[in-house]
């Protein structure tokens, strides 16, 4: 069947209306109180239409959140990895601290623990691509000599993101810019903090001898 341009435009309008309705309702009611029926009513589409495009409410919320995350938290490259990581992490903190994105993401993280399909979608659509982009930015810094050659880049990403999502999931106050700067500086320092050769005082230092 050939799809007409007008049908494509109608479908795209309906898709966007659905994503916007989901986020609006999440802000107004909280993630747990949002239903597919309510999203359909707010968006002006049928429940059947939503289930044709998404398998669950969580999948709708995930697409809405992932689309905003990519645009709001780019991996800039000014040539200074520490400054660029501060910019990136501050962007994440701001996004997940602001309705509707914060409540939506908290709901997604909670729901994925008992929805295997949603958990897989989160890994494939959100976590995986973001980690790959972060690793690529770190790799460029590594090639420029700003990060040690033997640094474990995927682990570095977890060290950067972990404290942010830990605070988000536990509903602790979000980091301010000074805290983010301290986090980034600490992670980058840790990459160069491996054990020193014994001939350079490492053995004595490890035993606490002076």
UniProtKB/TrEMBL annotation:
InterPro entries: Homeodomain-like_sf, HTH-type_TetR-like_transc_reg, HTH_TetR, Tet_transcr_reg_TetR-rel_C_sf, TetR_C. One of its GO terms (molecular function) is DNA-binding transcription factor activity. It holds the Pfam family TetR_C_11. The keyword Iron does not apply. Residues 12-72 form the HTH tetR-type domain. It comes from the Bacteria. Residues 35-54 bind DNA. SUPFAM superfamilies: Homeodomain-like, Tetracyclin repressor-like, C-terminal domain. Keywords: DNA-binding, Transcription, Transcription regulation. PANTHER family: HTH-TYPE TRANSCRIPTIONAL REGULATOR RUTR (PTHR30055), TETR-FAMILY TRANSCRIPTIONAL REGULATOR (PTHR30055:SF148). This is Regulatory protein TetR. It comes from Streptomyces pratensis (strain ATCC 33331 / IAF-45CD).
């Amino acid at each position: 069947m050939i799809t007409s341009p007008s049908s494509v435009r109608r479908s795209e309008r309906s898709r966007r209306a659905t994503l916007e309705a989901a986020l609006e309702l999440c802000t107004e009611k909280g993630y747990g109180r949002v239903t597919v029926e309510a999203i359909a009513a707010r968006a002006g589409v049928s429940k059947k239409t939503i289930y044709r495009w998404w398998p669950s409410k969580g999948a709708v919320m995930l697409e809405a959140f992932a689309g905003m995350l990519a645009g709001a938290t780019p991996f800039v490259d000014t040539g200074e990895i520490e400054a660029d990581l501060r910019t990136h992490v501050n962007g994440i903190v701001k996004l997940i601290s602001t309705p509707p994105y914060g409540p939506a993401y908290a709901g997604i993280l909670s729901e994925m623990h008992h929805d295997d399909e949603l958990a897989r979608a989160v890994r494939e659509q959100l976590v995986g691509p973001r980690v790959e982009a972060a690793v690529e930015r770190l790799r460029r810094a590594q090639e420029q000599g700003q990060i040690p050659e033997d640094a474990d880049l995927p682990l570095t990403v977890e060290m950067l993101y972990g404290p942010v999502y830990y605070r988000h999931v536990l509903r602790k106050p979000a980091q301010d810019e000074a805290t983010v700067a301290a986090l980034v500086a600490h992670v980058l320092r840790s990459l160069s903090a491996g054990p020193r050769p014994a001939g350079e005082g490492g053995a004595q230092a490890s035993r606490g001898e002076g």
